[in-house]
Amino acid sequence: MKKNSAAKHFTSMKNNRKKIAVVTGGGSGLGFAIAQKFTQHNIETIIIGRNIQKLERAQQQLGSSCHIMCCDLSDLATIPSLIQKIVETHGRIDILINNAGINMKKDFTEVTDEDFAAIINTNLNAVFAISREVVKDMLKYNSGCIINISSMAAQYGLPKVIAYSASKSAIDGITRAMATELSPKGIRVNAIAPGFIYSDMTAKALNEDIDRKTRVFARTPMGKMGQPEDIGEAALFLASEGAGFITGVVLPVDGGNSIGF
């Protein structure tokens, strides 16, 4: 699909209004890749993160269609005013990408209650809170698209990431529950479950653990890691009119890892 043709999917035919997207954790990694695809396809994109320097660097790369909001989403009390400010500034929110998340690698018995609660708060509670506030605006128009970022940790067991696994399993459940309740009101809700996606950090981690690297590639039928752009393309599709009859889906983008042996 040509870029100009694809961009039409994200522009209102009635008033030539650009779609407005919010991407949490959009300053780097998968969030940046999603924001990049959106801005390339004529979507006004607000990226949210905790690090203003990182957000500003991302904005410089993404151009004039990118806007930044600095906020720590783990502080749930700040979320309603954050969304209110975005709506007041940009008019409405058409697309929400719940990408922001944190992880912690520890032996099961070493994970404290505080450790577990911190992961759940950022990866699950914040997703619920920001979705609730965005949906209040989407309901005014009986339209909208929400995409949650899940993980292979919700598809099968991974050691030493108990809190992360719990949070992402909950994301799959909240995606289906939201889709069931909100789809009759014009709001589609889906999730993307990335497999092993290339980054300097993941490459370094795998190169330092050859046994883990061997197992990753052995159970991935396509025999390679994905690229951040693969997640961006999946999000772009799920946010488009082409996915207008898709809701409640958790889409693995993993080279077959979740079905490999």
TrEMBL record:
One Pfam family here: adh_short_C2
Keyword hit for Transmembrane: no
GO molecular function: oxidoreductase activity, acting on the CH-OH group of donors, NAD or NADP as acceptor
Keywords annotated in UniProt: Oxidoreductase
Keyword Plastid: no
Coiled coil regions, renumbered to chain: none
Database matches in CDD domains: SDR_c (cd05233)
Domain of life, source organism: Bacteria
Similarity comment: family membership: Belongs to the short-chain dehydrogenases/reductases (SDR) family.
Name of the molecule in the record: NAD(P)-dependent dehydrogenase, short-chain alcohol dehydrogenase family
Native organism: Parafilimonas terrae
